[in-house]
Design a protein that fits this description.
Helix content: 25-40%
Strand order of the largest sheet: 1-7-6-2-3
Strand content: 5-15%
Order of helices and strands: HHHEHHHEHHEEHEEHE
Number of helices: 10
Structural class: alpha/beta
Radius of gyration: 18 Å
Amino acid sequence: MFKRLLTPRFNLPFSLPLLVSQCAVCNSWPTRQVCAPCVSRFSPQTLRCAACALDLPSDLSLGTAGIKTDPRLCIDCIRHPPPVDNTLVAVTYAYPWSELITRYKFGNRPGWAPFFADILLGAAGVRPVLEALHADDLIIPMPLSAERLQSRGFNQAWALARAVSLQAGTLAQSDARLLLRVKHTQPQTTLQREARLANLKGAFQVDPLRASRLAGRRVVLLDDVMTTGASLFTAAEALRAAGAAHITAMALARTPAT
């Protein structure tokens, strides 16, 4: 019965407690998916750009004595502000998170969503944003193309969004059908930044029959991994064009700058 509940075509059991298991990192037992010491060790608090969530140096000077950024922003986001009001992430996309997230999304393991939601909810600034949402506001997962959804078996961002919503107790609704991915693109990981943007052109669209749902609303746009931000920011542009008043991008993990 429990196995059937975890099958993608059924509702996921997010109301269930996190199950006891062996730590996937250090193999300690018993614990949840990753033990508390490993979570603490591999998710240190870091100073990040408020707009794109890249790591920032502790000294926020711009190279000219006495000039500081406020709020904390990287040079690229000062010069070219992204179409979101802020971006929040929990961890850096590196060991062990890169391996665990890969297993989650490509290994058909939606049962990990509540654990990852707990990690995201522990990140600085995440809970206040969710608690400030009203009943008419929205949590929107990054959509997958029909082809990718069929091959993967479930949308990992949607599973994460539902778990986050339920565990945070937010009044906002999670909506996986308002933002659509209407263009199947090649994987972004194989492309450079300019090619990523070209690859994503026209990829996202708000359901035209429901676009009014966004007018004047606060939106949390949620994904599992943020690489360059091209996908999240392109999707945010579609939401902004449909009338979203405030957009917070959230991701479980952020790829570090290269």
